[in-house]
Write a structure and sequence with these properties.
This protein has 9 helices and 13 strands. The protein has helices at 19-31, 57-64, 78-87, 102-115, 156-168, 189-198, 215-226, 261-271, 282-285, and strands at residues 11-14, 35-39, 47-48, 51-54, 68-71, 92-95, 118-120, 126-129, 134-137, 146-153, 173-178, 204-210, 231-237.
């Protein structure tokens, strides 16, 4: 999806000298992504897999034309790293880091919205534009094949498994986005549905939700109200989850009757969106 990342995206890795930064920089390069710079304060002048390391984001922007960032910085330093990227003029920031305090996420997402910067995450596996060979994330390369199905998901591992089913069905993927497992995230389902609607490479969309919050209900309302023009299939994880208990993702908590699997399934039913019982059913339900 060119509105987020495409073959022209020039990627900056914040935290490139850490183990996660090194590992996933190599994987992104292998996928064909244009990783042009890394940033770790105090380690400027080094190289990681041939990628030059700078002390500041502004240096990486000025010298290498970086316009997209992926953040592998530990939680206590991540908000400062994201704010630095916003101030330096980065257009899209993918925040892989988990366990960032909600107050900090609220603050940098608000600042990003004022500046017109896209935030993916926090606590996200990232985004992959398969046809344009642009991966800004930690997804396994070999699962994804170029194609026509977009995926927006709250779960990284479910994204991989669904992509595998879609690849095996011969449909392939256009762009896949993990919106993040936290309660507070930047890009949400509604914003992504708007982007997928205008994306010529995407013919159908899979929404992968889970219990907790109301992101799925808002997406269903948007689909119904706009008479959404593309085929959408949903899957909801956590149908048997016990109430009042957090399960893995910080955003996956059911409070009374709010955010239950049934409330989300009901909302999609009203919108005319089929909800798959099993992951293997998704490709059969896509009307392409």
């Amino acid at each position: 999806m060119r509105s987020i990342v495409d073959e022209k995206s020039r990627i900056l890795v914040q935290g490139i000298t850490g183990n996660e930064g090194k590992f996933h920089t190599e994987a992104m390069l292998s996928f064909g992504t244009k990783v042009v710079a890394g940033v770790t304060p105090g380690k400027g002048g080094q190289e990681v897999h041939g990628v030059p390391v700078f002390d500041t984001v502004s240096q990486a922007v000025s010298e290498k034309g970086a316009n997209t960032s992926i953040v592998f910085v530990p939680a206590r330093f991540a908000p400062k790293a994201v704010n630095e990227a916003i101030e330096a003029g980065i257009e899209t920031i993918v925040v892989i880091t988990e366990l960032i305090p909600q107050k900090d996420s609220i603050e940098f997402i608000a600042m990003a919205e004022k500046k017109g910067v896209i935030i993916v995450g926090p606590n996200t596996p990232g985004i992959i534009n398969v046809p344009q060979k642009a991966k800004v994330g930690i997804m396994p390369n070999h699962i994804f094949k170029p194609g026509i199905v977009g995926i927006a998901s709250r779960s990284g591992t479910l994204t991989y498994e669904i992509a595998w089913h879609i690849s095996n069905a011969g449909l392939g993927q256009s762009t896949c986005v993990g919106i993040g497992g936290d309660a507070i995230v930047g890009l949400d389902f509604v914003k992504l549905l708007q982007m997928f609607r205008d994306d010529k490479e995407t013919k159908g969309v899979v929404l992968v939700g889970e219990v907790g919050g109301k992101a799925e209900e808002l997406a269903a309302h948007y689909i119904k109200e706009t008479n959404y023009p593309k085929s959408v299939v949903a899957y909801i994880a956590g149908r048997s989850a016990p109430p009042e208990k957090r399960m893995g993702h910080a955003g996956a908590i059911v409070m009374g009757n709010v955010g239950t699997a049934q409330s989300k399934i009901d909302a999609f039913a009203v919108a005319g969106v089929p909800v798959a019982q099993k992951l293997s059913d998704i490709t059969k339900l896509l009307n392409l």
